[in-house]
Write a structure and sequence with these properties.
heterodimer; A: 103 residues; B: 249 residues; mainly alpha; 11 helices; 2% strand
Chain lengths: 103, 249
């Protein structure tokens, strides 16, 4: 089985298990506060890591290329509350333009 | 139970979700395009939208696979981003009716947006609104993914179009709303950005700001990049959430 399908199956089953633990198993008992605080910070930590890697990593090297300009432009768009789809398009367009001009 | 879960019904939930479903459809389009560009093929992204049904997790998995990461690290990244659904599921659990399959369906349709729409305030959730809103979002997400996969087929070299920069831009768009507060749930226009999850009353001491976890996560990921296989730095960055343990001690 390909890596892609392993990801699809493991992620699907795992996500449903996370969602259904409360409704099916726990019957509404609250989680301890400590666990809630930790889980709430997982999202920001991982998303920031994904931003950093996606902007600067090229395989195992850290580089500065057109993506920095694209993500910078996206940050400006987010600052002005642009819709997500527009943010993505701006990032791609600025990066592609930078590559076309420098390549 | 019917009285305490509010007056709104399936119809109100379906109406309330329409603007978000439109946004999620657009989000699904970009997921389909990027997943295809990341080498996931045409069918797997659609199946993943049917089953995993969580935007940020699916983008993360695609981005790890694109970088050449192993299946295990891609799946682990996705599941860590979805860890918030454990406490979110716990909040809706007391308000769900019916047997195992009904509860499982409601659990599957619980995503950030349907959870917010179905909230009645003061810790109550409306299961009929949850069902209607969740179904609307699910259909929009799947159709969007399908459209993106079909459209992505006609796109050439993804780096020439700057699509590799679209991933970090998207994650930044999902991250920013989460940095505003550690105590309220933030809503993201998409299939699920995640978030500073609810804190039940009476409020415990506030957790460390999400911004600190974010900076720490980014620093861990960049520091590990030269030394570890693709995907590992992202999973390791999840350890930054452990600062949440500190002030609750």
């Amino acid at each position: 089985m390909s890596a892609v399908w392993i990801v699809v199956i493991v992620s699907g089953i795992g996500t449903l298990a996370l969602k259904a633990t409360g409704p099916v198993l726990l019957g509404g008992k609250p989680l301890p506060d400590r666990l809630t605080g930790v889980v709430g910070l997982l999202g920001p930590a991982l998303l920031a890591a994904l931003v950093a890697i996606g902007t600067f990593a090229d395989g195992q090297r850290l580089v500065l290329d057109g993506r920095v300009l694209g993500v910078g432009a996206a940050a400006v768009a987010i600052r002005f509350r642009a819709p997500v789809l527009l943010v993505v398009i701006i990032a791609a367009a600025v990066t592609a333009t930078a590559r076309a001009l420098t390549g | 139970m019917a009285e305490t879960s509010g007056d709104r019904g399936f119809r109100e939930g379906a109406v309330a979700v329409v603007p978000m479903a439109v946004a999620v459809f657009g989000f699904g389009l970009s997921y389909g395009v990027l997943a295809r560009a990341a080498g996931m093929g045409g069918v797997a992204p659609v199946v993943m939208s049917l089953t995993t049904f969580a935007g940020s997790a699916q983008f993360a998995a695609a981005s790890v696979l694109q970088a050449g990461g192993a299946a295990a690290t891609a799946a682990l990244s996705a599941l860590m981003l979805n860890a918030r659904y454990l406490p979110i599921g716990v909040t809706v659990a007391p308000w769900l009716e019916g047997g195992f399959w009904s509860r499982l369906l409601h659990a599957h349709l619980t995503v950030d947006e349907s959870w917010v729409i179905a909230a009645e305030g003061t810790g109550r959730w409306n299961p009929r609104v949850l069902l209607a809103a969740g179904m609307g979002l699910w259909i929009a997400w799947i159709l969007g993914t399908l459209g993106g996969v079909l459209f992505g087929n006609v796109i050439g070299d993804p780096t020439r179009l700057g699509l590799d920069a679209a991933f970090p831009a998207l994650f930044l768009a999902l991250l920013v709303p989460q940095l505003r507060s550690g105590e309220r749930v933030t809503m993201v226009a998409g299939g699920g950005g995640g978030g500073p999850v609810f804190l039940p009353p009476p409020p415990p001491p506030p957790p460390p700001p999400p911004a600190i976890a974010a900076l720490l996560g980014a620093a861990i990921a960049l520091a590990l990049t030269p030394f570890t296989p693709a995907g590992v730095p992202i999973v390791a960055a999840g350890a930054a959430c452990l600062i949440g343990l500190r002030r609750h001690g």
